[in-house]
Give the backbone structure.
Amino acid sequence: MSNITKPILYPGFKIKGDVIIVARTDKVYFTEIYSLSDGKYFYLFLSVKPNEVVDQKDKIELAKISSNGNDYIGAIVANHSQSQLVKIVDELTNLRGFDCIAGMRELKEVLIAEVINPLRDPERFKKFKVSIPNGIILYGPPGCGKTFIVRKLAEELGYNFVQVKHSDLATPYIHGSVGNIGKVFANAQDNAPAIVFFDEISGLVPNRQNLQGEGSHKEEEINEFLMQLNDAADNRILVVGATNFIDRIDPAILRPGRMDKKIYVSPPDFEARKELFKLGLSGRPYDKAIDFDELAEKTDGYSSADIIEGVVEGAARIAANMNDTAIDQKLLKKEMEKVKPVVEEKSKIGFSR
Ligand SMILES: Nc1ncnc2c1ncn2[C@@H]1O[C@H](COP(=O)(O)OP(=O)(O)OP(=O)(O)O)[C@@H](O)[C@H]1O
Ligand SMILES: [Mg+2]
């Protein structure tokens, strides 16, 4: 521990309201520790870029400050200890699991109550005769975070993640894909606990009513999948499927005890849209006066991909072409008009619960 470098902040520097810096008490790794006039402490992070931190709301009180033309981010904490400092820096820089999901509080609550808790403490749930899920289906409009959320769910559970696309299972041999389904589950079992994620699961297990020609072959695949699914929970495997259209999946898959948890992933809510703009802009030069509330208000119905890959990316490209300009409110709003929300009224009906 050394105090050799000059402190960035000086006594009397205002942190927020009438709280000011009293003195720098320490410097640990890339963090300066200051005592504050209200008895609390301020961690000033030198290695954490202000735009790359996702605001964790109630968890850690953050303050953005400017000194000598540089922007910094810091945390206000009640007490200081070395272990707490390490933990906070770690949390801010290595967000994992659900902390990375912007907004979507209801969805997270459903996943915690119906999936995470039962898998973490199966005995408790068995006592109450509540089933442990074998599988869940996430459904909803494209670009709203289904794939993203499954990855975060695996992180949150501390499970390995095996992703399977329907095209990965195809073989030129007539019964080949049935064998491949078995291999996927054998692989997951070797890596258990694991999430096996079938993206576009309606390709793998389509509604048998709509099948023509390839019927009997598909039938075999569906039966193999159902068999594997039955043993999943016992093997500490959680099967997750994603689809844009829930009614394209064979109803046998959705029966109780199978993939009976159907979870709707809606377009991002107000909070999520706000965070998505912050996330999209982080690391790019942007105007500090951006009104995130207004951006979120004006993008109801936009998917996450519309916001990040459509509006923000488009505005960034224009700003870059204009050279030396930061991305500002006007640019973002102009891009908004060009990007048609993926979720229009018409399709909303099809995705209702
Ligand atoms: N709540 C969120 N917080 C942060 N990032 C998000 C959130 N939701 C979505 N994203 C981001 O939005 C993009 C689109 O999400 P994703 O690809 O998971 O959508 P999807 O529903 O799987 O789409 P599709 O149906 O087309 O497969 C990803 O880059 C993801 O990182
Ligand atoms: Mg996807």
